[in-house]
Design a protein that fits this description.
By secondary structure, the chain is an alpha+beta fold. The protein has a domain of 85 residues: Roll (SH3 type barrels). Helix content is 67%, strand content 16%. The chain is built from two helices and seven strands. Strands 6-5-4-1-7 form a five-stranded antiparallel sheet. Strands 2-3 form a two-stranded antiparallel ribbon.
């Protein structure tokens, strides 16, 4: 791994870098930032692996690069210890953070999915209850319709019966009137018969004495 990194660093040292290029401290534990190009210059600070540096200048012959560290400190470091990508452990840490973030998002999505499934189940239950209630209401409505139809039929029958009763009452009144007339006529008839009988009796009462007197007169003449 170190040989590969060294080869990459040498390649970068040969190619050189443009101004303001961003490079990273290699997988070495620490590198020295000095005030000049060489070990005789004072060390400004120790740069741990993975430190992000801004490359200001590169000296291919000396193998040094002038860089600006976080905080604005500028100095020279060996070019072979720089690479274009973050250190492997930094990439690993970033990958682990990304994985952790994705796992967290995945758990959130799974929780949301479970909530959606639960809500869907609750919705299905509510839908089933509503369907059941709808069927019940439909049955009750049909029963009401049948009852209404029966009520209408009964009402029609009642109206017909009332009409029949009215007709019967009128007929009864007519019969009662005729019966009253017949009674009056019968009374008159009986009155006339009684009067006739009385008159006949009176006539007979008048005729019979005369007949007897005539007979007696005839007998006396003999």
């Amino acid at each position: 791994m170190k040989l590969i990194i060294l080869a990459i660093s040498l390649t970068l040292a040969l190619v050189g870098g443009a101004a303001a290029e961003t490079l990273y401290v290699s997988d070495e534990l620490e590198i020295q930032m000095r005030t000049g190009k060489g070990n005789q210059y004072r060390i400004l600070r120790m740069l741990p692996s993975g430190t992000q540096l801004e490359v200001l200048e590169t000296d291919k012959e000396e193998g040094y690069s002038k860089v600006r560290a976080p905080g604005g400190v500028e100095g020279w470091v060996l070019t072979r210890f720089l690479m274009q990508q973050p250190a492997a452990r930094e990439q690993l840490a970033a990958a682990e953070k990304k994985v952790a973030r994705l796992e967290l998002e995945n758990r959130k999505l799974k929780a949301s999915f479970d909530e959606a499934q639960e809500a869907r189940g609750s919705t299905e239950k509510e839908r089933g209850a509503l369907d059941k209630q709808n069927r019940k209401l439909s049955q009750e409505l049909e029963e009401i319709r049948r009852t209404a139809s029966s009520a209408l039929a009964i009402d029609a029958e009642n109206k017909e019966l009332k009409s029949g009763i009215v007709a019967y009452e009128r007929q009864l009144q007519t019969l009662q009137q005729e019966n009253t007339g017949l009674k009056d006529r019968t009374a008159r008839d009986w009155f006339m018969v009684g009067a006739g009988v009385v008159l006949l009796g009176m006539v007979i009462g008048l005729i019979i004495p005369r007949i007897r007197w005539r007979k007696k007169s005839s007998w006396d003449t003999l």
